[in-house]
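fyi for ur records
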Amino acid sequence: MNINEYQDFVESLTSPESNHYEAFIKKLDELDKDTNVNLPLLLNSAAGLSAESGEFMEIPKKVFWQGKPLDEATIFHMKRELGDILFYWMNACRALNLKPQDVIDENHNKLTNRYKDGKFNVEHSENRKPGDL
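which gave:
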């Protein structure tokens, strides 16, 4: 398959909402009518979480593979990036009308159910029960 054929293949597998402005706006209008979600804030939060997580990952990448020192300044830099992640996480909670404590509690419940003995286990990490997202 050449690159032009692959481009056509990828386009055929991409949703109308991703390929066409009008379809995207129609989807936004449908979601806005059918949900109580702050759609602009959700999209901004999702983009922000992804971007800031990448910025955070750049730091350990440089420490582990590029010789950056793991010193006080580097840890402070990671602290600041974690704060940015927290900012977008909080906005995602706001966008979805979720109480942050409820999100934390649900995560705790999920992990407690996955690791019944309270310790990491490769078997439970890799082989999850149905419904364990």
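The chain has a mean pLDDT of 96. thats all i got for now
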